[in-house]
Amino acid sequence: MAEIVAEGEQPVSAEIREKLVEPFITATRTALGEMANTEVVVRAVFQNSSPPVLRDISIAIRLTAATEAWLVLSFPERTAVILSSRILSGVTADVDHQLLGDCVAEIGNVVAGQAKALLAGTPFHFAFSLPRVIVGVDDFGHLAGFNCLVVAFDCNAGDFALRLYWQP
C-alpha cells in the first residue's frame, strides 16, 4: 500500500524518517505482531504543525531525552477493543473499559520499550514514563508549540495513529 500525505501536511525528511520514525514503526509492528498477532501497515507519515484532536482512546507516554517529548498512540474504540480481545484471548471473554485501558496502556509500554531498545546509543535515545490513558476527545493543547510527527497505521482490526511530539 502506498503511503499518502494529507493535503496541507508536511512530509518528513528522509533523515528524520530513517533515524527516528522507522524505529517507532518497527516497534509498533513488532509489538502488535507479537501481542495481537496482527500485521500493521503504514498508511502515511507526515509532520503536523498543530496537535490534532485525539481519538476515542489514547495512551500518552512522556519521553525523557535531550528535550521533552511525548509518544501518543491513539485508537478508535472499535480498533482498541479488537486488538485487546486478541491480546486477552483465552483470558477473558469480555473486555470492559478498565481492562481496555489497561491493555492499550500495555501496548504503549511495549511500543515505547521496543523503540527505546532500537534507539539505544543514538542521539534519539530516551527513557519513558508510565502511560497515561486518555478516554474521549482531548486536544492535547498543552503540547501547542511542539513539533508533531504522525504515523497513520492500518491493520485488519482498524486504523490508529502514533504521534511523536518534541520541543523544537
Helices, by number, come to: 3
Q: In angstroms, what is the radius of gyration?
A: 15 Å
Task: Please estimate the helix content.
Answer: 25-40%
**What would you call the structural class?**
alpha+beta
Please identify the top-level CATH class.
Answer: Alpha Beta
Q: Which fold name corresponds to the CATH topology?
A: Chemotaxis protein chec
Shape descriptor reads globular
Query: What is the N-to-C succession of helices and strands?
Result: HEEEHHEEEE
Largest sheet: 7 strands, antiparallel
What is the averaged pLDDT score?
A: 87
CATH-defined superfamily: CheC-like
Task: Give the domain tally.
Answer: 1
CATH architecture: 3-Layer(aba) Sandwich
Strand segment tally: 7
Q: Report strand %.
A: 25-35%
Through-space gap between termini: 32 Å
Uncertain parts: none
Any descriptors?
168 residues, alpha+beta, Chemotaxis protein chec, 7-stranded antiparallel beta sheet, 3 helices, 7 strands, 34% helix
Provide structural commentary:
The chain has one domain: CheC-like (Chemotaxis protein chec). The chain is built from three helices and seven strands, in the order αβββααββββ. Strands 1, 2, 3, 4, 5, 6 and 7 form a seven-stranded antiparallel β-sheet that branches. Strand 2 and strand 3 form a beta hairpin. Helix 1 packs across helix 3 and helix 2 packs across helix 3.
